[in-house]
């Protein structure tokens, strides 16, 4: 299971994401990461509802963003989201955001999510069976 899964989502920078100077507030980059994760999940059948139906929630416990360039209202971006396989009971995603107008790298990042029971929020120390089945389906050579 060494295969990497990725997805590219295109997003338009919205008016409400920019300050009065037209520059995107730094916190919205994390939202773009989430947009990328959700698009990845739709493409690869791993949505938050899939976790929920299996009695699992997947809170983010770590997120990191390196800013390279500013974004402005009216820009269009591509969010490259890559799932990083781990034997541990967690999910890791890496991100690259590009400005579609000039193909410049705008930001890079990484997030880590853990598995918890939906009802008691107990941390799971092993990968849930449905996630193991997903890995077998999508990551097998």
Question: Taking Cα atoms only, what radius of gyration do you get, to the nearest Å?
Answer: 16 Å
Residue-averaged pLDDT:
95
Q: Remind me, CATH topology?
A: Thiol Ester Dehydrase, Chain A
Helix content: 10-25%
Q: Which spans have pLDDT < 50 for at least 5 consecutive residues?
A: none
Calculate the terminal CA-CA distance, rounded to whole Å.
7 Å
Question: What share of the residues does DSSP label as strand, in percent?
Answer: 25-35%
| Strand arrangement across the biggest beta sheet | 1-4-5-6-3
CATH architecture: Roll
- Got a strand count? 7
Count of domain modules: 1
CATH superfamily: Hotdog Thioesterase
Number of helices: 3
Which CATH class applies here?
Alpha Beta
Coarse structural class:
alpha+beta
- What summary fits the major beta sheet? 5 strands, antiparallel
Shape by Cα distribution: elongated
SSE series: EHHEEEEEEH
Structural account:
The chain is of the alpha+beta class and 141 residues long. It has three helices and seven strands. It has one domain: Thiol Ester Dehydrase, Chain A, CATH 3.10.129.10. The strands form two sheets. The protein has a five-stranded antiparallel beta sheet, with helices on one face. A hairpin with a 5-residue loop joins β5 and β6 (105-114). The longest helix is centred in the N-terminal third of the chain and has 18 residues, at 27-44. The relative contact order is 0.24. The model has no long low-confidence stretch (mean pLDDT 95).
